[in-house]
Write a structure and sequence with these properties.
The protein is α/β, with parallel strands linked by helices. It has 8 helices and 10 strands. It has one domain: Alpha-Beta Barrel (TIM Barrel). Helix 1 packs parallel to helix 2, helix 1 packs parallel to helix 7 and helix 6 packs parallel to helix 7. The relative contact order is 0.16.
Length: 233
């Protein structure tokens, strides 16, 4: 199974086109006003049309209410919702019932104790994103350029596909993949020249480095298990 590469926080036609042309599997769009990558619905509608059929469109939200989610879904027509706040498993279940979309739940990680909520989310989420835990003083939960100890995820026995984020860039993505055996990687600040401003060369370099890491890594353990489970019905 190939490594999924997600470029998040895209906000212009130019940088979205670079990500798509370079082979990004997922393109992420942020709907959270405190973020420098926040998108207005009008812009999201245009970018969504540009990405349609070329990559998986991911809408990132933080503790959004139903009205906000309705606006996002109408404008972007996302393929998956990324919930990056303090949403509970019950809230995920409610969102999935109302909007009928796959869900990716972001889980902030600092120590192994932060993995405790996983069983609850596994019952309803379609994918997990492990991200570095933001400092208490931060105004947003992600996109801060901070890494976490990837060894926390080493040998993780988890049935759902998962991705890794937090401080990734072309220079360290191979190490992250090697240690975590994640099925995907997610980058935002690591391909920016300044907060919210994507750099085309950094986007290309990250995707190239991720592809190289993928070709050098064996199939993730979870993927082997999941394939066997599907074969068995």
């Amino acid at each position: 199974m190939s490594l999924l590469v997600k470029i998040c926080g895209l906000s212009t036609r130019e940088t979205l086109d670079v990500a798509l042309a370079a082979g990004a599997d997922m393109v992420g769009f942020v709907f959270f006003p405190p973020s420098p990558r926040h998108l207005a619905f009008e812009d999201a509608r245009e970018l969504g049309r540009q990405a349609k059929g070329r990559a998986t469109k991911v809408a990132l939200t933080v503790d959004a209410d139903d009205a906000t989610l309705e606006g996002i879904v109408e404008a972007l027509q996302p393929d998956i919702l990324q919930l990056h706040g303090k949403e509970t498993a019950a809230r995920l279940r409610d969102i999935k019932r109302k909007f009928g979309l796959p869900l990716m739940k972001a889980l902030p990680v600092e120590t192994a104790a932060d993995l405790a909520p996983l069983p609850g989310y596994a019952d309803v989420a379609d994918r997990i994103l492990f991200d570095a835990r933001a400092p208490k003083s931060a105004t947003r939960p992600g996109g801060l350029g901070a890494t976490f100890d990837w060894h926390v995820l080493e040998n993780l026995d988890f049935a759902l596909p998962f991705m890794v984020s937090g401080g990734l860039h072309a220079g360290n993505v191979a190490e992250a993949v090697h240690i975590t055996r994640a099925s995907g990687v997610d980058v935002s600040s690591g391909v920016e020249r300044m907060p919210g401003v994507k750099d085309p060369d950094l986007i290309r370099a990250f995707i190239s480095a991720a592809r190289a890491a993928d070709s050098a890594s064996p199939l993730p353990v979870y993927a082997e298990r999941s394939t066997a489970q599907r074969a068995g019905g």
